[in-house]
Amino acid sequence: MMRRKGREIALQILYQKDIADLSIEEAIENYKRYLNINNIQALKFGEELVRGVLDNLDFIDKIIQKYTPSWPLERMNITDKNILRLAVYEMFFRPDIPEVVSINEAVELAKLYGTDDSPAFINGVLDSIFKKEIKSKKL
Known about the structure:
This protein is mainly alpha-helical.
């Protein structure tokens, strides 16, 4: 449950960064200042995810674009884009998190924060990435 909350925190920070065009430090500080933080572990995990996404953003965005050719990142819903970024980061850079867990958690975030179409879109993109980029290389 702590990791799910951390993912929600990460999504909210990334969303705030994109909407308000803030630095990551400003977005994190705003989150800490204005929201009631009662789970320090979740906040720490959320910050790790945010920093990991931003440290690997070029790679992550290239992977996403490869599997969403008709949806340029600039046109993509900000929430969906950041959910994908978080999941792709976890799938490629967090060996402590099984890829299937990352996909399931992303779909759950999409159900909570996305549109009606978001869960299916997120699941389809991440499933393709998993099958073609990760699973096929493990065989």
